[in-house]
Amino acid sequence: MHPVRTPVTLSLSQGHTVLLTGPGHIMLSEGRAECYGAPIGSDTWIAVEALQQLPFFATDRCVFEVRPETQSSWKEVSESTIPTGWMEGADVAERQRGVAVIVGNVDSGKSSLCTFLVNKCIRDGLRVGVVDVDVGQADIGPATTISSAHVSGPVLSLQELQPECSYFIGDTSPSLVLAKLIRLLVSLTRGLANSVDVTFVNTDGWIGDPAALRFKDELIRAVQADLVLGLGEGKEVDSLLNVVSSTSIRLSSSKYARTRSKEERKRAREAGYRRFLLGASPVSVNQGGISLRMFDRPQQTLLRWNTAFKGFLTGLLDADERLLGIGRIREISDRDAVVETKAGQMPRFLEIGNILLSSKYEETGYGILH
């Protein structure tokens, strides 16, 4: 992997791939190429975000221009980075239709697989929806939330999808709120059922212990999955596929999948908070008509507003628990609060999450409410 310091022109032979790690921009100036099965338009700059890696595959001889930023890097490989088995997985998903759940370990490439499957189904004329339930490394919404979206055309990243319905889970791990997450996940999948041919459910990477296996099995049963796609090698994936009653298939991870450090995963979450909070306005809310409650006690109204909640991530919910927007509590007293948010309407509930954020939307505390 070579650090990119100055603008560079890359000539790729047919069948080769350039892997670009952001932040940076890339443009196809000659030939034909695709990314996760999505065709790349020519003469248009594509942004690759910090910590994101995208594979640009030359379906014909082509030329790329790279416009780097600090810490950009790239490498060329003489093959496709997409495992051949992924096409088989797409074919099975098209035949099965219904709900397809993607499971696998952390950094196994679940979002990459989901993006490829979405593009293949879109290309073949199917109506596609995505439900993102990876609360730690969410793509469609910010971390601590789950979201659904219809897909109208090919995408290079799930982050391109706009959340159409979201719910606030309040934590970056599902372990404290398993029943809540599954209940709201079922609502998201049912909301898509009548308008799509296939719904891909992209899950978190927690599969390494018995509690995680029980959770995934319950999740798969709750959404009545028609297909389970297990990604990666190892006994954890095999153990899960052995217990599910749905049709299942195991797929290999790409050997080019990028493993991120704990700090990089934290920075990715913070980038997600900023995506939904930068440009937020301070909104004053008070106890009149608004209930304050905890992320893991959704049925309990907290009658006393507590100054200890200052700085915490919060979900602004409507009367049906749908997320209007996330926010950060700037000030709070025993009667009212000032919340930084981009939500466009007054909430019915303020739900306090388990993440403490700085004024720059950096995670400064976790799991300190109990």
Task: Note down, in words, how this protein is organized.
The protein has 370 residues and is α+β, with helices and mostly antiparallel strands. The chain has three domains: 2-77, Jelly Rolls, CATH 2.60.120.1030; 85-251, Rossmann fold (3-Layer(aba) Sandwich); 262-366, Pre-mRNA cleavage complex subunit Clp1, C-terminal domain (Elongation Factor Tu (Ef-tu), domain 3, Beta Barrel). 22% of the residues lie in helices and 36% in strands. It has helices at 85-96, 110-123, 178-193, 210-222, 235-243, 262-277, and strands spanning 2-3, 8-12, 17-21, 24-30, 33-35, 38-39, 46-48, 53-58, 62-68, 73-77, 98-104, 128-132, 145-151, 165-168, 198-202, 227-231, 247-251, 281-286, 291-294, 297-301, 312-317, 323-332, 336-341, 349-357, 363-366. Strands 18, 19, 20, 21, 22, 23, 24 and 25 form an eight-stranded mixed sheet that branches. It has a seven-stranded mixed sheet with strand order 14-13-12-15-11-16-17, with helices on both faces. It has a six-stranded antiparallel sheet with strand order 1-10-3-8-5-6. A hairpin with a 5-residue loop joins β24 (349-357) and β25. The longest helix has 16 residues, at 178-193. The chain starts with a strand and ends with a strand.
Mean pLDDT: 93
How would you characterize the largest beta sheet?
Answer: 8 strands, mixed
Q: How many beta-strand elements?
A: 25
What is the CATH fold-level name of the largest domain? Rossmann fold
General form: globular
Q: Using the 3D structure, state the CATH architecture of the largest domain.
A: 3-Layer(aba) Sandwich
- Which regions are unreliable across 5 or more consecutive residues at pLDDT < 50? none
Give the fraction of residues assigned to helices: 10-25%
Number of self-contained structural domains:
3
Instruction: Indicate the radius of gyration in whole angstroms.
Output: 21 Å
**Separation, N- and C-terminal Cα atoms:** 44 Å
Q: What's the number of helices?
A: 6
